[in-house]
Structure to design on (459 residues):
């Protein structure tokens, strides 16, 4: 690898990104063009070293600022069994938000007591599954859930550890679709309306629930540290004024949530893990200390910041359409089916040619997806060399909320996933094929209706 040539977008690409001997983009010591030839496109490439370093940075940052801390990976960012095993090996636990995520975590063999279940409308079967699987904590999101979970835990013969998720009424200044800590949100029990206090009383009435502490999650990505500090002050007030003073309960555990930022586009502000750790640790010490409360164990929940940078999406360039004086569209063989974030949140990305990553930009184009929606645009006004049909385009920071939100829209095939490490590429998930699109169809026939309507649990 030629270490002297300067790779553009180096801050967004995986840590191992470089130039292969032929001048192509290299990831994990593998030539990206060879990966695309071998596994097809679109292709999602995860770099093992970046994944490991992101895990370690978070664990070490929080451990050194606040020894009584746990890092949980928010699985919804992207989950597969091999990934879960690697993340668990770095000492992280997991957030799950569905029965499906619990099943995949269980099948991957990670310790279920390190799993926390979230969700603003958990179903009874999911609560039963969580209790049976032995998840460490269930994070109660609303008042209705309390008797339902109380029943599920006693039916399962367990005293279930729970946290109560409060909505502190703090604006984290993120996208309206990803803000969760404000009063007008579907997540969490509001402190301001008195609902939180009622919920606390209701949890304490359930003998099968062991209230371990409180939770908040303000949204994502959060680039400012102040919302965490404001939220932590609200939580400490509740821990002292309500939990201790009115109910005589100690808040032994506290989670300030996740939502730590990553770089998607050049110049995106990305506080390092140590900055979040320092701000959170000092706010907890200060706010808990000022109220004479014993310090809680804290758990943080990074999702995107663990996996986003490790992933790169590789696409092949297709049709080009020039609308003189208006815009040039360059289409690629992926788009909103594998990355819905630009269409859904207006997310910005960057791209580079994987065949000539150091080529100078020559034109401004819009990179469009291939799906039948005008809103299927991946990048607006990207400065790129003039791309040829068939050329390989790389989009960095593709590891989070892309595959996990992917669909078969237009009956497209979900991409293959490979893990690269020290020059070796390992297929983690094969590309879908036509039979996958039809595998779940049930031909009409006697007895099939019951199966089609049946439970999601594997028997
Ligand atoms: C989604 C979510 C996270 C993770 O958010 P990221 O932006 O991926 O870090 C953490 N905690 C909760 C409760 C969440 O819902």
């Amino acid at each position: 690898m030629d270490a002297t040539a300067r790779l553009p977008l180096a801050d967004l690409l995986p840590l191992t990104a470089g130039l292969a001997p032929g001048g192509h983009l290299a990831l994990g010591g593998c030539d990206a063009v060879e990966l695309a030839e071998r596994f097809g496109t679109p292709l999602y490439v995860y770099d093992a070293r970046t994944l490991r370093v992101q895990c370690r940075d978070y664990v070490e940052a929080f451990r050194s600022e606040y020894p009584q801390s746990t890092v949980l990976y928010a699985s919804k960012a992207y989950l597969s069994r091999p990934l879960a095993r690697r993340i668990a090996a770095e000492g992280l636990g997991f957030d799950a938000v569905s029965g499906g995520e619990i099943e995949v975590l269980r099948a991957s063999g990670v310790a279920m007591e390190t799993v926390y279940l979230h969700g603003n409308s958990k179903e009874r079967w999911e609560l039963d599954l969580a209790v049976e699987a032995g998840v460490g904590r269930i994070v109660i999101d609303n008042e209705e859930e309390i008797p339902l979970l109380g029943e599920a835990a006693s039916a399962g013969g367990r005293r279930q550890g729970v946290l109560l998720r409060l909505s502190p009424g703090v604006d984290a200044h993120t996208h309206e679709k990803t803000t969760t800590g404000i009063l007008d949100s579907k997540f969490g029990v509001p402190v301001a309306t008195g609902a939180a206090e009622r919920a606390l009383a209701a949890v304490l009435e359930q003998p099968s629930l062991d209230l371990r502490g409180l939770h908040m999650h303000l949204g994502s990505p959060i680039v400012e540290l102040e919302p965490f500090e404001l939220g932590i002050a609200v939580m400490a007030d509740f821990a002292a004024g309500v939990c201790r003073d009115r109910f005589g309960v100690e808040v032994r555990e506290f989670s300030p949530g996740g939502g730590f930022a990553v770089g998607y586009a050049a110049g995106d502000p990305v506080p390092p893990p140590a900055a979040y750790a320092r701000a959170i640790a000092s706010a907890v010490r200060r706010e808990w200390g000022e109220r004479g409360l014993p310090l809680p164990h804290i758990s943080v929940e990074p999702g995107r910041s663990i996996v986003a940078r490790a992933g790169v999406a590789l696409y092949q360039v297709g049709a080009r359409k020039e609308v003189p004086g208006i815009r040039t569209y360059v289409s690629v063989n992926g788009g909103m089916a594998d990355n819905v974030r630009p269409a859904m949140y207006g997310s910005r990305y960057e791209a580079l040619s994987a065949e000539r990553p150091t080529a100078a930009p020559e034109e401004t184009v819009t990179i469009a997806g291939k799906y039948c929606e005008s809103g299927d645009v991946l990048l607006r006004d990207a400065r790129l060399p003039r791309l040829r049909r068939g050329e390989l385009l790389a989009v960095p920071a593709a590891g989070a909320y892309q595959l996990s939100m992917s669909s078969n829209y237009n009956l497209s095939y979900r991409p293959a996933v490979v893990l690269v490490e020290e020059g070796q590429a390992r297929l983690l998930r094969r590309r879908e094929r036509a039979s996958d699109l039809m595998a779940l169809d049930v031909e009409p026939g006697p007895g099939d209706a019951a199966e089609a309507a049946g439970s999601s649990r594997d028997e």
About this structure: The CA atoms of residues 108 and 121 lie 25 Å apart.
